[in-house]
Amino acid sequence: MFASNIGRLRFFSYSAAVLVAEIVAVVLCISVTIGFDGLANSKPGPGREGVAAAILVVSLVVVLFRANLAWRRSRDAQGSKWILWGYIVFSAIFAFLQAGTVLVYDFDAEDFNSGLNLLGFSIFGLWCTILMAKPAGVDLNELASVFDFDEPAAPLGNMNSRLYSSPAAATASSASTSATRPAPSRPTGPNARPRPGGFGKRGLV
Known about the structure:
Blueprint: H1 8-33, H2 36-41, H3 49-77, H4 81-104, H5 114-132, H6 140-146, H7 156-163, H8 167-180
């Protein structure tokens, strides 16, 4: 279950599910340990050690799931190893920095952690690279040429000329046509008369 290769759609779906699970787990950690009011009114320092530790454990577990998904997707596409390991290492660093930010962040100050956001954008870029990697053994140019409708269709005359390009093919086609054509029915019996030919209903004798 955790070792099979996964494609783009499954990787995207699983990653979205892991993200939702992480958000729910972090909200539960804050609610159980200190509460949102307590977190907002608390000062940075030892009073937040419990919530920071809980968020760190949850984040590291999430990193393990993301690393497994990225490894399975990268193996399916035979992606670059440095992209895979860069994604895993940056995700682990982000987990530690996220827990540290909860521990030391001052909600009364108007500081903005730009370094953590830049790291998050880098992780997102690596994730997109792993997601969009083409499957191994598939030539996208050949796959796109199947759906290429820019070339004009061959005329019917050219198709017939190609079909009957050889005399043997034309002879075989005419023979098969005459063989399949039904013979005209003739009246049988002692009193049978030949059908008179003519024009219209009266006929011409």
